[in-house]
Amino acid sequence: MWPPVVVLAAILLCWQAAVDFGMVQEWVLPSPLAIVQESVKVWPRLMEHTGATLRLTLLGFAGGAAAGFVLAALLHLIPGVRRGIYPLLVLTQNVPVIAIAPILTMLLGYGFLPKLLLLMIVCFFPITIALLGGLTHTDPQLRHYFQMLGIGKWRMFWHVELPGAVAPLFSGLKISASYSVLSAIVAEWLGTNKGLGAFMLISFKGFQPARGFAAVLIVVAFSLLMFGAVTVAERFWLRWKPAKEGDVK
Length: 249
Fold this sequence. Notes:
This protein is mainly alpha-helical. It has a single domain (32-241), classed as MetI-like fold (Orthogonal Bundle), CATH 1.10.3720. Helices cover 81% and strands 0% of the residues. The radius of gyration is 23 Å and the shape is elongated.
């Protein structure tokens, strides 16, 4: 941990010195000390907006994860569906999120639902692709063995293919967890007075960059916490999953 900590400390010191010596105007780029002071000053408001962003992020991530899991299972179990939908699925990811947001707003208004759907659209794709790849690369000999035993497609999915695809699934969950907070901020830019995204817009437009950077710090910390939570869940599963027959001596 020491090398990145030292580099980060050096960056913060240079940043603080550049503002203190007038190399950068504080109304353009506030110093780290000013950001911390402003964070303490507006902490209750920050926590209020953080709660709104937290609710949107967790619901969107959970909904996107569920949608990604179900879609990956359908694409894997029904070959015709995969041939018809998979190319369109990849095509949808070439549409910028900032372009999807106004469309959802025009269709569904400025309420909570379009923001939630935007977040789910961002989160489901990495999970679908990762899980689908893991299901596809199941050991062919193991699959053939269970087919000889007369195991049906659904039992094969739950007892053979899905357990072997959990590691790729967690990889997709990590990516989605990292995207979820940033996507929630973009969703809040659609038009709301609650959430860190709205707080950032108001702060920067009101020439209060220290408050805007305080919100950015919370977003970064929240993103790291989401990623860390998925990582902890993955390690817990890897620790407690049943051992394979070949692992037992």
